[in-house]
Amino acid sequence: MPLAVLQTDNSPQTKTILFQNVRSLHLHIDDVQSDYNIQKADVNIFVESKLCLSDRDDTYQLCEFMLYRNDFSQSNIRTCHGTAVYIKNDLNCTKTPYRYNFNNLEITVMVLSQPIPNIHVIGIYHSKTKVTISQLIPALTHLHNSVLIEPTIPTVLLGDFNIDLMQANTEQKALTKYLITDKGYTQLINQYTTEYHTQIDHVYTNVPQCVQSAGTLESYYSDYKPIYISMKAV
Question: Does residue 6 belong to any structural domain of this protein?
Answer without folding.
Answer: no
